UniProtKB/TrEMBL annotation:
<feature type="binding site">
    <location>
        <position position="271"/>
    </location>
    <ligand>
        <name>ATP</name>
    </ligand>
</feature>
<feature type="active site">
    <location>
        <position position="444"/>
    </location>
</feature>
<feature type="compositionally biased region" description="Polar residues">
    <location>
        <begin position="72"/>
        <end position="85"/>
    </location>
</feature>
<keyword id="KW-0464">Manganese</keyword>
<dbReference type="GO" id="GO:0005524">
    <property type="term" value="F:ATP binding"/>
</dbReference>
<dbReference type="GO" id="GO:0005794">
    <property type="term" value="C:Golgi apparatus"/>
</dbReference>
<feature type="binding site">
    <location>
        <position position="292"/>
    </location>
    <ligand>
        <name>Mn(2+)</name>
    </ligand>
</feature>
<dbReference type="GO" id="GO:0016773">
    <property type="term" value="F:phosphotransferase activity, alcohol group as acceptor"/>
</dbReference>
<feature type="binding site">
    <location>
        <begin position="375"/>
        <end position="378"/>
    </location>
    <ligand>
        <name>ATP</name>
    </ligand>
</feature>
<keyword id="KW-0479">Metal-binding</keyword>
<keyword id="KW-1133">Transmembrane helix</keyword>
<feature type="binding site">
    <location>
        <position position="292"/>
    </location>
    <ligand>
        <name>ATP</name>
    </ligand>
</feature>
<keyword id="KW-0472">Membrane</keyword>
<feature type="compositionally biased region" description="Acidic residues">
    <location>
        <begin position="173"/>
        <end position="187"/>
    </location>
</feature>
<feature type="region of interest" description="Disordered">
    <location>
        <begin position="166"/>
        <end position="192"/>
    </location>
</feature>
<feature type="binding site">
    <location>
        <position position="464"/>
    </location>
    <ligand>
        <name>ATP</name>
    </ligand>
</feature>
<keyword id="KW-0325">Glycoprotein</keyword>
């Protein structure tokens, strides 16, 4: 391999001959520098066989990251990763960085050999120390577009709030209020005394609240969570590590999903891995027959956060034991009846639901371990009722029929006159959602939900993203219909999209980095490289649609950040 590089250099030098002596000298020096880097790589990998920090050079090889600790509070799953005494960056990412940084030296073949060799030396899947370097994710979140001043929140801008002493006195006599989970007095004892659950010792002091409760208490009119809230890291760590106490099928929806309970009353929505990460959806399957993907739920949470929306409940990946963490503990007879051992000796189940709940579509451990996604549950509907809205751009969910919006190019004119789209931000909120869906190719956004309490003046929940990231080789322009037909977009998201299209930030790089924070990225990258590059390709398409709109109309931009002239 080493001699291969020398051969390339030598060949180049001879070819350019004496008449180009200056160029040859430069080229020679470049080759020399490259070879030294490769030698250094070898030295580090074979002698030290451990963390390997590459020195910075004039190229983009990362320098030292002095802000590592800062990323913890901004990065939901980083805590989870470190808690398992594993480093944040799997070696695949190191490999990628090497690749990206050295490709411009045009020695791709030789480099692959280096990386293959380093793969063997390090051991696939084994985590090595984080290669220090500038983090594009940290840089993105430091950008003014991700730190826009927020309106001060008033009391009625919080979904839930703790009772004040006065509230408590007012309602003391009311029996039902005694069952409220947010009392003011010193300690609250669980009424249920259910087996296995922790004794509850929460007080009005936030420090005593479990992460899921802090998450609930942090939901506001404008977003589900504040990206900078240190509780996010605790919440994802909690989901990734808490003992599973209960697992039952969750009703509602069409495909199998489980409701998971934890000892301190936290809950999560589990979606199992059904197909390999790299499998593309069969081209002959309609969108409504597509499987749900656990990694799509995880990736959607990261993408939504990177776009600055914060409208998806935190989702984390986890490897669970289907035997000890579902089969042996479930109280759901309908579920437990469906467990079996496959001919390969794997423990499988299929549950009961409308689609793909049959022995022909089993969910199987290997032989027990299964990858799943766990989404934080929103507050119970009895505490925080939600309203479900049919999307005006809902697909027909039929093999033959077209929806109205597919037939009528002036469809948006009607929508714009129809409440709630005729005032406030509802239309641009819907367009935000269409951008998210187009980027991840989610054709399944038939409904969306809002919190009842906030009326129409609130954000849209981006729930149910299991059918995203099904195909990377194809884009689905119809998902962008709301943007393309209405020619309207929030200025803040447009500027962020432009930022994410710049090489310094590049959406695919930021997604790759963000996804390494998820515990499951240690098993394999959560999105394959073709899916990551599809994000860049689709982002360019969104910007083209906006450009085309601006050429025809002057009211394309909805200026939600008046006076903030930040932007790329
Ligand atoms: N994190 C969450 N917390 C609370 N409720 C949720 C959460 N995620 C989803 N739900 C609720 O559960 C319902 C079903 O979930 P989801 O939509 O993911 O399942 P699905 O099988 O894909 O549904 P569908 O077939 O309708 O697309 C949703 O409509 C939503 O109301
Ligand atoms: Mn769905």
């Amino acid at each position: 391999m080493k001699s291969g590089i020398w051969q390339v250099c030598f060949y180049n030098m001879v070819r350019r001959n004496l008449g180009q002596s200056t160029r040859s000298i430069y080229l020679g020096l470049a080759c020399l520098s490259l070879s030294l880097h490769v030698l250094l790589a070898f030295f580090c990998l074979s002698v030290l066989q451990t963390a390997c920090v590459f020195p910075s050079s004039s190229s983009s090889i990362p320098g030292t990251d002095t802000q590592h600790h800062e990323s913890v509070s901004q990065s939901p799953a980083s805590d989870a990763a470190s808690s398992n005494k594993l480093q944040r960056r799997p070696h695949d990412e190191v490999r990628h960085k090497l690749t990206a940084n050295m490709l411009h030296h045009k020695v791709r073949g030789s480099l692959n050999e280096v990386t293959e060799k380093s793969k063997k030396l390090i051991g696939v899947g084994k985590i090595i120390q984080k290669v220090d370097g500038p983090s594009k994710l940290e840089a993105l979140f430091k950008h003014p577009l991700y730190n826009l001043p927020q309106p001060e929140l008033q009391q009625d801008d919080w979904l839930l709030r703790l009772k004040t002493e006065e509230d408590a006195k007012d309602t003391e006599s009311q029996e039902e209020e005694k069952e409220d989970i947010f009392p003011d007095d010193s300690e609250w004892q669980s009424n249920s005394h259910e087996e296995g659950y922790d004794k509850v010792t929460w007080t009005t002091d936030v420090e005593t609240h479990p992460p899921w409760l802090r998450f609930h208490l942090g939901i506001s009119r404008w977003e589900l969570y504040n990206r900078k809230d240190p509780n996010l890291a605790q919440l994802t760590h909690y989901l990734a590590t808490q003992r599973i106490l209960g697992a039952v099928q969750k009703k509602g929806g069409t495909q199998l999903k489980l409701l998971i309970s934890f000892p301190n009353y936290g809950q999560a929505l589990l979606k199992p891995m059904k197909q390999s990460r790299h499998a593309e959806t069969d081209v002959n399957l309609f969108y409504f027959s597509d499987f749900e993907r656990h990694n799509a739920e995880i990736a959607a949470f990261h993408l939504d956060r990177l776009l600055g929306f914060n409208r998806i409940p935190p989702v984390v990946g986890r490897l669970i034991n289907v035997t000890t963490e579902i089969k042996e503990i479930t109280t759901d007879r309908r579920l437990s009846k469906t467990f079996f051992t496959s001919p390969a000796g794997n423990v499988c189940f299929y549950g009961q639901c409308e689609y793909y709940c049959s022995v022909e579509h089993p969910v199987c451990g290997q032989p027990h371990m299964l990858e799943v996604s766990l989404a934080t549950m929103l507050p119970d509907l009895t505490i925080a009722p939600r309203r479900s809205w049919r999307s005006p751009w809902r697909r027909s969910y039929s093999r033959t029929k077209l929806a109205q919006w597919e037939k009528d190019p002036a469809y948006c004119d009607t929508v714009k006159q129809t409440p709630p789209y005729n005032q406030g931000t509802r239309l641009v909120d819907l367009i935000d959602m269409a951008v998210l869906d187009f980027l991840m190719s989610n054709m399944d956004r038939h409904h969306y939900e809002t919190f009842e309490q906030f009326g129409n003046n609130t954000f849209l929940l981006h729930l149910d993203n299991g059918r995203a990231f099904g195909r990377h080789s194809q884009d689905e322009p119809s998902i962008l219909a709301p943007l393309q037909q209405c020619c309207r977009i929030r200025r803040s998201i447009l500027l962020r999209l432009r930022l994410l299209s710049l090489p310094d930030f590049r959406l695919s790089d930021i997604m790759r980095e963000s996804l390494t924070q998820d515990p499951l990225s240690r098993v394999a990258p959560l999105l394959s490289e073709p899916h990551l590059s599809a994000l860049d390709r689709r982002l360019a398409k969104v910007l083209q649609v906006v450009q085309a709109c601006q050429e025809k109309h002057d009211d394309v931009i909805y200026n939600d950040i008046e006076g903030h002239d930040q932007g790329p």
